[in-house]
Amino acid sequence: MTFRKRLGKALLMAGIAPVMLAAAADNQNFHNAPAAVKNVKSPLAGQAGAVQAGGKLFLAKCRRCHGTEGQGGGNTPALTRAEVRAATDGELFWFIANGSEETGMPAWDNLSDTERWQLVAFVRSLGGKPASPAPAASTTK
Ligand code: HEC
């Protein structure tokens, strides 16, 4: 692991950990994600290879529950649904890292930050069409 990567992880954890405890009651956010993760930006934004790399990880780690196209099945939701598309990158990253013990989504805390951001990029790419109407939060794109 490079120093830069470790530093990035430390900064991210330092920012997120206190709020994870504080914001558990706020259910306005995607899967009760703490408010502070909402605006965390992907360091891979705009990087050409991120979606492809995320796709490979997805097939290896996520397909068995979420399906090849993220279509879901059984008790596993489709990753193309409106709530997922409305979630910010930071919220998706947080949920992928933490999962949900009660509902059966594993916590992917053994992946690197880069791998999780690649998965976020891939999940974002699912569904083809751009989300409509554009949520107000995405005007910075
Ligand atoms: C063992 C089955 C399983 C695996 C493997 C799995 N998931 Fe999930 N996932 C779930 C279930 C069940 C939920 C619904 C959780 C909930 O609603 O609380 C879920 C929910 C999600 C959500 C939120 C979807 C929504 O509609 O709100 C995302 C994003 C997600 N998973 C991403 C991933 C990624 C990325 C991977 C691979 C690294 C992965 N999952 C692997 C079972 C799985």
Describe this structure in words.
By secondary structure, the protein is an all-alpha fold. It has a single domain, classed as Cytochrome c-like domain (Cytochrome Bc1 Complex, Chain D, domain 2, Orthogonal Bundle), CATH 1.10.760. 46% of the residues lie in helices and 0% in strands. It has helices at residues 3-22, 49-61, 63-66, 82-86, 89-98, 113-125. It starts with a helix and ends in a 16-residue tail after the last helix. The model is unreliable at 21-27 (pLDDT under 50). The structure holds heme C. Heme C binds next to helix 3, helix 4, helix 5 and helix 6. Heme C (HEC) is lined by residues 61-62, 64-66, 75-77, 79, 81, 83-84, 92, 95-96, 100, 103-106, 108, 119, 123.
Quick structural gist:
With 141 residues, the protein is mainly α. Helix content is 46%, strand content 0%.
Keywords:
single chain; 141 residues; mainly alpha; Cytochrome Bc1 Complex, Chain D, domain 2; 46% helix; 0% strand; binds heme C
Structural class estimated from helices and strands: mainly alpha
Number of strands: 0
The largest β sheet comes out as: none
Cofactors and ligands present?
heme C
Provide the low-confidence segments as ranges: 21-27
Please give the domain count. 1
CATH superfamily: Cytochrome c-like domain
Counting DSSP H or I runs of 4 or more residues, the number of helices is 6
- Report the CATH topology name: Cytochrome Bc1 Complex, Chain D, domain 2
- Report the principal-axis shape: globular
Tell me the name of the CATH class: Mainly Alpha
Helix content range: 40-55%
Query: What would you report as the Rg, rounded to the nearest angstrom?
Result: 15 Å
Measured between the Cα atoms of the first and last residue, the distance is 30 Å
How large is the share of residues in beta strands? under 5%
Q: Write the H/E string, N to C.
A: HHHHHH
Report the CATH architecture.
Answer: Orthogonal Bundle
Q: Residue-averaged pLDDT, rounded?
A: 83
